[in-house]
Design a protein that fits this description.
The chain is α+β, with helices and mostly antiparallel strands. The chain has two domains: about 70 residues, Ubiquitin-like (UB roll) (Roll); about 60 residues, DNA polymerase, domain 1 (Orthogonal Bundle), CATH 1.10.150. Helix content is about 35%, strand content about 15%. The chain has six helices and five strands. A five-stranded mixed sheet has the order 2-1-5-3-4, with helices on both faces. The longest helix has 13 residues. The protein is globular. Bound molecules: FE2/S2 (inorganic) cluster (2 copies). The site of one FE2/S2 (inorganic) cluster has 11 residues, from loops. One FE2/S2 (inorganic) cluster binds next to loops.
């Protein structure tokens, strides 16, 4: 049994220790905001915060997340009031939306690390198949 703190709630999950955190979040806890894109740390769709650090949950063993504070898009704020969420809404960033939770979590993690504007942007190497890059840039430069 592995104990996880996700968005401030404690869960006990009975899974293999090497299971990627992504599948525990989505398939066991029902937190489907975190997405699967590539599975090889390229696209960023699966990004969550673990003790405030940006991590790719597609390759992060669930056992390594035990005892740490995991934040997903569902727990970033109770009412979409995180500055990154507000900037995304103000700039109407998403198209299909699939990549956007990972984008927002990466942005939030960079902000938490004390970065601003173009510094944040330079750290976001995520893939958006819809090509929303210009609107992401517009949203991030003001943060
Ligand atoms: S699904 Fe994890 S980086 Fe693409
Ligand atoms: S908004 Fe569709 S993949 Fe980014």
């Amino acid at each position: 049994m592995i104990s996880l703190n996700v968005n401030g709630t404690l869960y006990n999950v009975n899974v293999d220790a090497a299971t990627p955190l992504l599948w525990v979040l989505r398939d066991i806890l029902g937190l489907t905001g975190t997405k699967y894109g590539c599975g090889i740390e390229v696209c960023g769709a699966c990004t969550v915060l673990i003790d405030g650090q940006r991590e790719h949950s597609c390759v992060f063993d669930v056992s390594s997340a035990a005892g740490k504070k995991i934040t997903t898009i569902e727990g970033l704020s109770p009412d979409r009031s995180h500055p990154a969420q507000k900037a995304w809404i103000d700039h109407q960033v998403p198209q299909c939306g699939y990549c956007q939770p990972g984008m927002i979590m990466a942005c939030a993690g960079a902000m938490q690390a004390g970065h601003h504007g173009t510094e944040i942007l330079s750290e976001m190497k995520h893939i958006c198949i819809c090509g929303t890059y210009q609107r992401i840039k517009d949203a991030v430069v003001g943060l």
